Task: inverse folding
């Protein structure tokens, strides 16, 4: 029998690599009788048949040169399209579709780079040509009405802009979904290039980051325009670094924080908070990321009282200018001016009333959603990674909480403070929230703050174990709010807090913290004359000071003195020595 063995040979020529396949037959002798016959057949058929294949791989250098030329051509095309659109948006609105097609470039030489350039360019184009108002969809009746040529051209431009913008937003969402979500037919087509290959993971990651940055840019600059809710619903779930890469999550977090700080974006802020509230409803057992709660700390409510005061000042200045101008007018001109001012005043009052009422309503709804997120987290089993942000948020917005929630809030704070694993910062935030509520609308409530005084008194001893200065600053804020309720603080409590502050100032590593604590003792001394008695060690009293008692009412601080000031007078820091000396002299 004959068996064919195929050998492949390759050599490099001036035109590239040449491949040859040579077929060679080897005779194998089975027995003696068939040798001659097989030999004759071998003589006829044993011929080397060369075959040159048609496939010739492109050399690496040539492929790189072709890729650079293609990239330069695509970049020039993108620049030309963008310039023509920005120059005349109404005439070249159709070119937006061509720009979107470049966001899905399939040339394997430069697909990823061209897509990134096209996405960034398209985002800036939309940011430049989008109007400052929301474009609503025309009804069938409005479409059938015959309008002027200019109106028809404006409508066509607006509808074309909205259509291209919505398709562009959908393309950006698919790029992000290709990395963080399950694959489907549309995502597979987006990954596939012209030669049938797919973009690697690094390329998809870079495209997803670029798409996310484009969406964030559009949300910040075009939050008044169409598809803003769609952008918010796409960006907010990406706040959790567990669901996407850290870079994607960081970009989304920074964007939402900036959005919450912008008081002109109240409506889209409402939409973002709704998404956070919905995520807090569905995720349980600690699966909610802390970033969803931390971004709510950047939410700011405008002070309408300050705005009203500024408006009053501006109105006074305007009246002064009107008096000066009125003295130079004739009687008829004064009469016409008076009638015109009356009409303007009525129009302005209607507009201002509507604007003020709408702003207050939106802020009220926002606060309800924010507190809904906070209380939902606290009523469930509170998790350690969420408590700091929740308690800090409650402390920040406590003065805006409705009176109806005060009872439930204090019950929750009592439950949280009873947790043994609670950190000092979280305890201080609980106390700060309680004091802020009691110093505002809670003054009319008959709530005894004694338990919160005890918690604050216990927290002061833990300040010796912390390294940072933020806890000391937070403790001094709580003490300042406590001093405002002067009538509810007994003499024993004041003396106990003054003694403990002086004691823990000895154990602070940072001199700034020691000075801050001594300043609080000085504030106590200015408001309560009884604190000055602790500077005199010759006063005879009955009882023994008990520093280990957790209740400041029963520690008998009146039976001791501030002897720590003598040691603080020998502190290594000059500011601490000066503060201790002034305090020892009662100044």
Result:
């Amino acid at each position: 029998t004959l068996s064919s063995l195929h050998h492949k040979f390759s050599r490099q020529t001036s035109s590239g690599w040449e491949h040859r396949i040579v077929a060679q037959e080897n005779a194998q002798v089975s027995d003696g009788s068939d040798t001659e016959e097989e030999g004759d057949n071998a003589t006829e058929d044993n011929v080397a048949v060369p075959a040159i294949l048609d496939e010739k791989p492109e050399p690496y250098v040539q492929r790189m040169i072709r890729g650079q030329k293609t990239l330069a051509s695509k970049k020039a095309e993108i620049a030309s399209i963008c310039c023509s659109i920005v120059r005349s948006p109404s005439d070249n609105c159709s070119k937006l579709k061509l720009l979107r097609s470049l966001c899905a470039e399939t040339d394997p030489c430069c697909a990823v780079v061209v897509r990134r350039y096209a996405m960034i360019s398209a985002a800036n184009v939309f940011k430049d040509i989008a109007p400052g108002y929301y474009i609503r969809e025309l009804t069938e009746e409005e479409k059938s009405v015959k309008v002027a040529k200019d109106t028809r051209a404006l409508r066509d431009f607006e509808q074309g802009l909205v259509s291209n913008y919505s398709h562009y937003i959908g393309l950006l969402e698919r790029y992000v979904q290709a990395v963080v979500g399950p694959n489907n037919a549309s995502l597979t087509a987006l990954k596939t290039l012209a030669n049938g290959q797919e973009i690697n993971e690094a390329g998809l990651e870079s495209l997803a980051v670029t798409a996310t940055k484009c969406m964030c840019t559009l949300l910040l600059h075009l939050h008044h325009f169409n598809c803003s809710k769609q952008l918010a619903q796409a960006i907010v779930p990406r706040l959790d670094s567990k669901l996407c890469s850290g870079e994607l999550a960081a970009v989304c977090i920074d964007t939402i924080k900036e959005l919450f700080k912008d008081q002109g974006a109240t409506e889209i802020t409402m939409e973002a908070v709704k998404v956070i509230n919905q995520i807090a409803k569905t995720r349980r057992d600690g699966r909610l990321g802390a970033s969803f709660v931390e971004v709510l700390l950047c939410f700011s409510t405008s002070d309408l009282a300050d705005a009203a005061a500024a408006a009053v000042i501006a109105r006074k200045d305007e009246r002064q200018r009107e008096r000066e101008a009125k003295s130079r007018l004739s009687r008829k001109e004064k009469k016409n001016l008076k009638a015109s001012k009356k009409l303007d005043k009525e129009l302005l009052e209607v507009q201002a009333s509507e604007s003020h009422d709408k702003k207050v309503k939106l802020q009220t709804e926002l606060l309800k959603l924010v507190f809904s997120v906070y209380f939902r987290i606290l009523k469930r089993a509170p998790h350690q990674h969420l408590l700091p942000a929740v308690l800090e948020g409650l402390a920040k917005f406590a003065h805006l909480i409705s009176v109806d929630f005060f009872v439930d809030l204090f019950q929750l704070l009592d439950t949280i403070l009873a947790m043994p694993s609670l950190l000092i910062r979280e305890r201080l935030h609980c106390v700060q929230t309680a004091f802020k509520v009691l110093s505002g609308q809670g003054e009319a409530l008959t709530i005894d703050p004694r338990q919160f005084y005890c918690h604050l008194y216990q927290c002061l001893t833990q300040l010796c174990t912390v390294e940072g200065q933020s806890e000391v600053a937070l403790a001094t804020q709580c003490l300042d709010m406590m001093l405002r309720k002067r009538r509810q603080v007994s003499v024993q409590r004041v003396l106990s807090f003054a003694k403990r502050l002086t004691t823990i100032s000895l154990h602070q590593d940072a001199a700034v913290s020691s000075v801050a604590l001594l300043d609080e003792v000085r504030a106590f001394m200015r408001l309560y004359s009884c604190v000055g008695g602790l500077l005199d060690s010759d006063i005879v009293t009955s009882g023994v000071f008990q520093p280990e008692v957790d209740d400041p009412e029963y520690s008998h601080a009146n039976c001791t003195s501030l002897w720590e000031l003598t040691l603080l007078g020998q502190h290594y820091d000059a500011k601490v020595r000066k503060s201790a000396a002034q305090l020892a002299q009662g100044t």
Strands lie at 2-13, 16-27, 49-52. The chain has 23 helices and three strands.
